[in-house]
Design the sequence.
């Protein structure tokens, strides 16, 4: 991927500290609009504005019968006309509000910018729920710096807006996570056998076989399992205390950029396996001690092993 251009804050050079804090260049005059918190606040306001606008479009514009516009990884991995319209609205709005920023969207790919900030956008997370008229779908909008992949980025601000549920999660780096203005704190972890565990599945048969094997091993060891159908909402439910734990293989940057910040700003952990960051190989979220336990179990189960071709399984 191309090298990011230098980060600027309010038009001035800025640096990203090792702790992820953003500092404007010391030789530049500083003002409130250039402080790290001001940048986070500005990006968060934009994320929420954009997510709410797209959410309105998606919810109010939903026809009684939603058609499939295209398919992606398999015949059941669908794109609706509204996924495309929502992302188009997000891109046009961001181009007006933050013209120098890059955008990485689920449907439209990567468009380069010059500011160092990249918007990572899922125009409808939970597309299959949207297709069927189930309310668990959301628009997810996050602002990141660094290469826009989970292993290298620093997420500064994010909003997950679920219009049909009437719920909006927001988080700013270092400034907390909120559901509709109420500050969130991940609930203390119960023992694993009392944990309500969320998960999700990919769209390809080989991946689902592997995910079913892992799930079959975990299910007897937890309170119960939920498959809500929208990864961003799953993660936000962990931050809200409605799920104790969540894991999924196959998440893309737009599935988790905003929601992972909601979890960590609520005091939770979001991790991959074998010391790696959360990402496509595995994402595990929850209270830190329980995440460590589930990570160990998933490693033991080789939950990140290459998928076997269906024909080889018999
Ligand atoms: C999907 C949902 C689903 C998860 C899949 C994602 P999409 O996103 O988040 O819950 O299990 O891995 O791809 O396709 O609805 O944007």
Sequence:
């Amino acid at each position: 991927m191309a090298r990011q251009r230098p980060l600027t804050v309010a038009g001035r050079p800025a640096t990203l500290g090792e702790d992820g804090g953003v500092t404007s260049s010391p030789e530049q005059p500083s003002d409130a609009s250039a402080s790290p918190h001001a940048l986070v606040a500005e990006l968060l306001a934009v994320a929420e504005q954009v997510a709410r606008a797209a959410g309105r479009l998606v919810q109010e514009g939903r026809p009684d019968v939603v058609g499939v516009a295209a398919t992606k990884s398999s015949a059941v991995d669908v794109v609706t006309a509204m996924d495309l319209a929502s992302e188009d609205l997000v891109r046009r709005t961001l181009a007006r509000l933050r013209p120098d920023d890059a955008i990485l969207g689920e449907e439209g790919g990567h468009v380069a910018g010059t500011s160092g900030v990249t918007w990572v956008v899922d125009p409808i997370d939970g597309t299959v729920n949207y297709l069927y008229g189930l309310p668990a779908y959301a628009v997810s909008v996050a602002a990141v710096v660094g290469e826009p992949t989970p292993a290298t980025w620093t997420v500064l601000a994010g909003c997950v807006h679920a219009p049909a549920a009437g719920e909006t999660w927001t988080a700013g780096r270092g400034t907390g996570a909120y559901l509709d203005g109420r500050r969130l704190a991940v609930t203390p972890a119960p023992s694993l056998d009392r944990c309500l565990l969320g998960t999700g599945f990919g769209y390809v048969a080989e991946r689902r076989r592997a995910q079913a094997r892992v799930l079959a091993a975990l299910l007897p060891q937890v309170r119960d399992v939920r498959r809500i159908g929208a990864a961003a909402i799953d993660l936000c439910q962990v931050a809200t205390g409605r799920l104790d734990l969540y894991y999924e293989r196959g998440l893309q940057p737009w599935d988790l950029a905003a929601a992972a910040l909601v979890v960590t700003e609520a005091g939770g952990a979001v991790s991959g396996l074998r010391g790696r960051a959360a990402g496509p190989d595995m994402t595990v979220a929850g209270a830190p001690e329980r995440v460590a336990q589930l990570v160990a179990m998933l490693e033991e189960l080789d939950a990140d092993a290459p998928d076997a071709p269906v024909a080889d399984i018999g």
Observations:
- Residues 106, 122, 125-127, 200-202, 229-231, 248, 250-251, 255 surround D-MYO-inositol-1-phosphate (CB under 6 Å).
- Confidence is low (pLDDT under 50) at residues 1-5, 25-33.
- The chain has two domains: 8-183, 192-313.
